[in-house]
Structures are given as C-alpha cells and as structure tokens.
C-alpha cells in the first residue's frame, strides 16, 4: 500500500484543520468498548473539560446546561437542535450572513419545519435594526444565527444579538428560543451562554478544538429540554432528549468514533490543564490581530468583515479586483509545493462574487493548535506568492 506519497501539508484552511502531533498520536490510544467502563474513563473528563471550555463549569457557577457528544459533525448537532425543539406549529427565523447560515436554513427546511430566512450580503454582519423589524413583522417562536460565519470571517457578539432577540420577542409576548451555530469558533473565544440567554449551542471537534472530525457537540439549557418534550418526531439520532439521557451517564447514544474520543481526551486536558483556557482565547485574538496587521502591508488587501465583527479563528480578506479565481488557485498550488494548504476563499461565494464583477476573497485559518510562530511563517510565504503574482 502506497501512502508514502501523501504529502505532509500544514493546513491553513478553515476546517478540517492542522492537527498537532500529540493529538494525532492520541488516536492510537487503545480502542475501547463504548458500553464498557473504559468509556466513562474517557468521556467523563471530555464532557467536564468541554463544559469548562464552554464556560459552564458547574463548580464555579450554577449554570444549568447539558453538554452531549453526538456521532457525526457540526451539522448533526445543528440538525439535532432543529429536529428537537422546533414544533409543528412553531415558526423559526434563520438569520444568515453566509453559506453556513444558509446551511442552518436548509437543515430546518429539509426537516419540514416552518422556516423563514433573513439574509445579509456576503461580508456583512447581522444588522440589529433589520433583524428587529423582521422579527416584529414575522413574530417567530425561535431564532437561529451563526456565531462565526466561516465563509466570510464575520463573528457576532452572541450576547448582544441573543439579548436583542429576547427583548424583541417580549414586545410581541413571546419568550423566543435562541439557537446558535458555533461550529468554527468553539474553543477560540469565551462563551457566556447564560448571560447571552442562548438556549442551544451547536459545535464540532474538527475546527477550533483541533482534533479529527467525527463528533458533534450540543449544549442546551433546561428550557430547551422542556420544549423538546412537546415536539413530535424528533427522530432517533436527532433526539436531543435521548442525547441528554446518554450524556448524563457519560455515554454516547450510538457508537462514536473512538479514535476521536481518545484525541478529545488528550486535547481537552491539554487545553484546560496545560495551556489554560484564557491563554488559548488570548492566542486566537493575537493571531487575528497579527493577520490584520499583516494584511495592511499588502496593497489593496482589506478585511472582508466589518471592524467590530472580525473573527478570532479565521480572517477573510478582500483581494484586489484584478485577481481572478485562477490567480488564487495558482497561489494555492505554489504554497502546496512549499508544504502548506492555502484557502483560496469559500468556493461558491467567490464564484458568485466573480459573476457580479466584485472583488474575490481568500481566507487564513488561525484556529486550533496553530501557533503565532507558525502563522508568521505561513503569512511570510503567502506574501511572497501574492507579490510574485503582480
Ligand atoms: C464547518 C461548519 C459547519 C458544518 O459543520 P460540519 O462539522 O462540517 O458538519 C457549520 N457551521 C459552521 C459555521 C461551520 O464552519
């Protein structure tokens, strides 16, 4: 079998991501029976550590959030939330600022839910006044939005958006449920779900947590659980209550990817006990700031996201109008030859931007175990390739 020819690339894309050697090796820890006592040895600390990363450490605060591991990935966690808490007579509003907001909408639509969408242009963040007007017009029972839109690098302050949603709901006498997709940012930024009044938060392991893919993570409060009890046809693998029951016993509803659980055991321990959660968050801010400073030195490169919404886990940059999709692909291939996997922008979005005669984008992933030193090296090489194009 010839795997020698698989090149060893450093991934600077936005997921899956670069996996550090110790985390790769953790996948080689002994396999285990997921109904055996070996399971709890791994899953209990993983759940406890993930709760700490999510800021719902029960020792320090009386937060009533459950956290469950779901076989699959982020989409599975998102679909579980939709299938479990949107009832037949509910209306859900999905607020989309890009491809992943659209994914949320498609999940709700294909689950047969009564769903409407509020869409913003690529590169824009949620305009709270527009959201307010839409909510007053449509009076939804639930609202879902994206914490960190991976296609555009737009990050939201979830406390601000969620509290606004709750306040507007009160204006039409509804205690609106808030769902958040945090797939590409969980582990890179401080979460205050209780303060933000978020009811369900969905995420995954192969982005800022930096293990392989294979497990979705869903975090939900008591209120969401009570709501789910009155929702029909939650499905089997998409039933939040079944996942909650399993998680209470440090179990996973159906057979998980045990290699990823082993990786999570090592990775979450490392983040919580060796690196430090706050230090991890600070590192991502530093990498975001560094990338934005770096971009200023390159002629006509601009952040795609508005100033107060620039993601800490990835940076999306608007490139000069003269750059075509082929140019970005050329940069990508040149960097591949140097051992890097570069991100030439979100494919579908760049194609649409090209058709409209607008500037294209490229992205720099700086999530997970990527360090500032690695990022500096990469950006230096990226700059050389950009300049070579001119
Ligand atoms: C990657 C991503 C998803 C999809 O997650 P999968 O783990 O690939 O299923 C959803 N939302 C956002 C914001 C993402 O970045």
Topology diagram in text:
Layout: E1 10-11, H1 21-26, H2 37-53, E2 65-72, H3 74-85, E3 92-96, H4 99-110, E4 115-119, H5 128-138, E5 142-146, E6 148-149, E7 154-155, H6 158-171, E8 177-181, H7 193-196, E9 200-204, E10 214-221, H8 222-229, H9 240-248, H10 258-275, H11 277-296, E11 302-303, E12 314-318, H12 325-337, E13 340-341, H13 347-355, E14 361-365, H14 372-389
Parallel strand pairs: 1-13, 3-4, 3-5, 5-8, 8-9
Antiparallel strand pairs: 2-10, 6-7, 9-10, 11-12, 12-14
Helix pairs in contact: 2-10, 3-4, 5-6, 11-14, 12-14
The structure holds pyridoxal-5'-phosphate (PLP).
Pyridoxal-5'-phosphate binds at residues 15, 73-75, 100, 103, 146, 148, 150, 181, 183-184, 204.
Describe it:
The protein is an alpha/beta fold and 390 residues long. The protein is built from 14 helices and 14 strands. The strands form 4 sheets. A 7-stranded mixed beta sheet has the order 2-10-9-8-5-3-4, sandwiched between helices. A hairpin with a 4-residue loop joins strand 6 and strand 7 (154-155). The model has no long low-confidence stretch (mean pLDDT 96). It binds pyridoxal-5'-phosphate. Residues 15, 73-75, 100, 103, 146, 148, 150, 181, 183-184, 204 line the site of pyridoxal-5'-phosphate.
Tell me the β content.
Answer: 15-25%
Bound molecules: pyridoxal-5'-phosphate
Q: What is the β-strand count?
A: 14
Largest sheet: 7 strands, mixed
Average of per-residue pLDDT values: 96
Anisotropy-based shape: globular
